[in-house]
Amino acid sequence: MNYQESLAYLDELSTFGTKLGLSRIEKLVGYLDNPQLHYKTIHVTGTNGKGSVSSMLSSILTMSNIKTGLYISPHLVSYTERIQIDGCPITEEAFADCISAVKTFADKMVAEGEESPTQFEVITAAAFLYFAINKVEYAVIEVGLGGLLDSTNVVKPEVSVITNVTLEHAALCGGTLEGVAKHKAGIIKEGVPVVTAAKGMPLEIIMQTAEEKSADIFIAGSDFSSVYSTFDGQYQYLRFLCELTGTNFDYKLKMLGDHQVENSALAIMTAGILSNNDERINRQNIIDGLATAKWPARFEPLKLDGQSYIIDGAHNPAGMSILRQNLDKYYPEGKRVILLGILKDKDIDAMLDYLLRDDDEIVITTPDSVRKASPEYIAQKIQNHHVELFADMYEALKAARHLANREKLLCITGSLYLTGELRQVLVDELKNVHK
After folding, report:
1. DSSP secondary structure string for all residues of 278-338
2. Which CATH number fits domain 3-292: 3.30.499.10, 3.40.1190.10, 2.40.50.140, 3.40.50.2000?
3. What is the pTM of this model?
4. What confidence tens digit (pLDDT) does each residue in 26-37 have?
């Protein structure tokens, strides 16, 4: 298969939807000689922040001169973003080759009357295979959904990370917060240390599971923490504290937001545990790794030709609330131009209420999705603001830049379908500048 054929195959598999359970993935990786056991892994789950923590850990390990795989989901623009080594996405050719290899055994399972693997299971197996072929030393593996019955839960990690637990995917994870917490705690393995920022009842469940599995547990806010110091327009400056080890040091992070303060603390604590058995993972490499860590389109600052941008994939009211808080914290002064595109099945009224300040200027366009809301539909919900409408997102970007005129912050948000595409435009321009 070539790359386009591999995408067509994955699209066919999407008809099977999301099915939790390990029987299919265990069979699939068994045919592939269990590639996920050929390297060390760090397994990361949680309601929010698992992608950020995974990215930070990958950056720390790579900075420690360790060949490191990273498996994340979803992607912004290309499936290749999901499978990376040392920060470099898999090539389209290698992606197609790995999907093709996995398809051979998926087809075998179906031919033998077994249930077809899901799309996520096939991509997961392909990632495991790619990491083994390329002989990575470590792989940071982000859970797709839940934990206990997630396809990634065939790894045997060095550390299990549970960022936090709130009510999400409840229908697939027991229907209650307690059920969700039990699914997240399902990644805890016998004798494997656990790092978490969970609180309340979910933390109690995680602690109980860790005790049952004889797993040491390290809890954010009591065993370790990070605190915010200042912001220089690009980086936030933080301090890590751990009473258990008597550790405290300063570091900087380009990934902005209060939530990233806690996420970085989780990454540091996890790296510290790994360093007990690997002297390459030292304090300086942790500091340098965090300074270079990035998580695209999540309150991501960019500066291009004198214009400051924030790219944020907030696509629901909760996301918009956090975006507004972070805009007010890091950019309290000056006016803002908001470039906005939202899907029609979202709570648009609540999203706008959370996001907009009275003096914001707004450019509305359409995300690249059949579910897009028309600019006119969104505009009728906005009163007393300067609003411009564009059907074409690239024309909208041009207009928003003109409005911002290097004097106002330009924030691109509303949908990952929009932010992913426009971020790529800006990144390509940045590459040309630095040639």
Report:
1. -TTS-HHHHHHHHHH---TTSSEEEEETTEEEEE----SHHHHHHHHHHHHHH--SS-EEE
2. 3.40.1190.10
3. 0.88
4. 999 999 999 999
